[in-house]
Every structure is written in structure tokens, then in C-alpha cells.
């Protein structure tokens, strides 16, 4: 299955992917995580992305499209779940074109819906693992050992773009440049909306119900 996960910053895309990849054995491809790894390794790509990420703007389409095309080529037969990509209509069109060249298509677009006001609290409390990308929250989703990743015991960190000013700009960028993607995908009938302002397990159950139904059709 090939799945796109849409949603504002803090909607819970990364959180939901953690459960979905275990269940469906799809490759989790997060454009944000890939960019953060490039930055941590000090690559040219990472350096190019730094300024955009720190201000809450989108990294230019050509950079992202090339980076994600390379990642998608490594996906297993079970498919992939895209988190944070595509983020512009240009990126979505490039993705469709690349898949079409291999007689493939996106099977489902999962749209996590959340009010901007809920996002602020989620972002200030978020902690993530710099090694494996696992996501926690200081109140809603605590790790077993305070400040350490459950999977690899790495010290959890706060993302540099989670300050209130940058989050405000990321939300504005999302509404202006990414939200139009819902209409883009609506045209081919693959969009499924989910209320993301619920317990993460409830959100996961709704998504799984939908993906299970798609898997048997
Ligand atoms: P990226 O890393 O993709 O960030 P984002 O889309 O802003 O999304 P987040 O990772 O912040 O949120 P999320 O929805 O994954 O929420 P999470 O599960 O962590 O992008 C960062 C930057 O990279 C961009 O600004 C841009 O510069 C660049 N970039 C990336 N992709 C790009 C692209 N395609 N094109 C151009 N530029 C690109 O959850 C958030 C918190 O809430 C956590 O603490 C979690 O524990 C908690 N939480 C989750 N679900 C729930 C729930 N149901 N109830 C309560 N708490 C919850």
C-alpha cells in the first residue's frame, strides 16, 4: 500500500506512523526526519535546508523532490507511508508522475484534522529521539524512563523549530501551501479525514479500520 499522511504541524503524523508501520510493514518516510538527519551530518543538503526549517518556511521543491524520489526508490513491496511529503501541489504532481512511470499510484491519503489552538500545547511539550525519530510528549505520551527514548535509551531533545514564533509561521505556511493538497487529492477520491483531536490510540484505530478495508478490496 502507498499512503500519504497529511495534516498541520503537530496533528500527530509522526506519532501515528509509529503504530502504522508496525502493523502494515510499510516504510515510514518522513521528509522532516530525513532533513534533520542531513543537518546533523552536516551535508550540503542539510546546510541548504537549515535556514528554511529554522524559520518555518518550506525547503524549495526541487531539493525536496529529488531527496524524496531517492528515498521512495528504496521502499519494499509492502509500500510506504509518506509523512510531511508532499507539501505543495508541485511536489504532489512530481510524486504522481514518478509513481505513474512505474505503473504505481497513491492508494490512500489520510488527512489528520486539528484546530490550530490545539497544536501550540502539543509542540511545546514534544520531545523526540534524535537517533530513531520516536516522538513523545511530556504530559500526553511520556517515555517509560524520564527523558530517554523507549527504543534505544537515547536522550530525548526538543526540536529547535518548536518555539511559539516558528510554530505560528509553520501553521501559516501549512494553511497557505499544504492545505490546497486536500483538494488536489480529493479529485481522485483517495482522501479520508480523521479527527486528530482524540486519544492517539483512538485515532490509530480509526485509521487502521480504513486501511484494513482498503487492503482487502
Ligand atoms: P516536519 O518535521 O515534517 O514537521 P511538521 O509537518 O511541521 O510536523 P511535525 O513533525 O511538527 O508534527 P507531527 O504532525 O508529526 O506531530 P507529532 O506526531 O510529532 O517538517 C519540519 C520542517 O522541515 C518544515 O517546517 C520544513 O521547513 C521542512 N520540510 C519537511 N518536509 C518538507 C517538504 N515536503 N517540503 C518542504 N519543506 C519540508 O506530534 C506532536 C506532539 O503532539 C508530540 O509531542 C506528540 O506526542 C503529541 N501528540 C500526537 N498525537 C497526539 C494526540 N492524539 N493527542 C495528544 N497529543 C498528541
Short description:
The protein is an alpha/beta fold and 217 residues long. Helices cover 49% and strands 14% of the residues. The strands form two sheets. The chain has a five-stranded parallel β-sheet, with helices on both faces. It has a two-stranded antiparallel sheet with strand order 5-6.
Summarize the structure in words.
With 217 residues, the protein is an alpha/beta fold. The strands form 2 sheets. A 5-stranded parallel β-sheet has the order 2-3-1-4-7, with helices on both faces. Helix content is 49%, strand content 14%. It has 9 helices and 7 strands. A hairpin with a 6-residue loop joins strand 5 and strand 6. The chain is globular and about 45 Å long. It has helices at 13-24, 31-40, 44-55, 61-72, 89-101, 116-124, 164-178, 180-186, 200-216, and strands at 2-7, 27-30, 80-83, 108-113, 126-128, 135-137, 191-195. The chain binds BIS(adenosine)-5'-pentaphosphate. BIS(adenosine)-5'-pentaphosphate (AP5) binds at residues 7, 9-15, 31-32, 35, 52-53, 56-59, 64, 84-85, 87, 91, 122, 125-126, 135-137, 140-141, 170, 196, 198, 200, 203.
Amino acid at each position: 500500500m502507498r499512503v500519504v499522511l497529511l495534516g498541520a504541524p503537530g496533528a500527530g503524523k509522526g506519532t501515528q506512523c509509529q503504530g502504522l508501520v508496525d502493523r502494515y510493514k510499510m516504510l515510514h518516510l518522513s521528509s522532516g526526519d530525513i532533513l534533520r538527519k542531513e543537518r546533523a551530518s552536516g551535508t550540503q543538503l542539510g546546510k541548504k535546508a537549515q535556514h528554511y526549517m529554522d524559520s518555518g518556511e518550506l525547503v524549495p521543491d526541487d531539493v525536496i523532490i529529488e531527496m524524496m524520489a531517492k528515498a521512495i526508490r528504496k521502499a519494499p513491496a509492502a509500500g510506504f507511508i509518506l509523512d510531511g511529503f508532499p507539501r505543495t501541489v508541485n511536489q504532489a504532481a512530481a510524486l504522481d508522475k514518478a509513481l505513474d512511470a512505474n505503473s504505481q499510484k497513491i492508494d490512500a491519503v489520510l488527512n489528520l484534522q486539528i484546530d490550530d489552538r490545539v497544536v501550540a500545547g502539543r509542540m511545546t511539550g514534544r520531545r523526540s529521539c534524535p537517533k530513531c525519530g520516536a516522538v513523545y510528549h511530556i504530559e500526553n505520551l511520556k517515555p517509560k524512563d524520564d527523558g530517554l527514548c523507549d527504543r534505544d535509551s537515547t536522550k530525548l531533545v526538543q526540536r529547535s523549530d518548536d518555539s511559539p514564533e516558528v510554530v505560528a509561521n509553520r501553521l501559516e505556511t501549512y494553511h497557505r501551501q499544504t492545505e490546497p493538497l486536500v483538494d488536489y487529492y480529493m479529485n481522485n477520491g483517495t482522501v479520508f479525514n480523521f479527527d486528530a483531536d482524540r486519544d492517539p490510540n483512538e485515532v490509530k484505530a480509526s485509521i487502521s479500520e480504513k486501511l484494513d478495508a482498503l487492503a482487502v478490496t
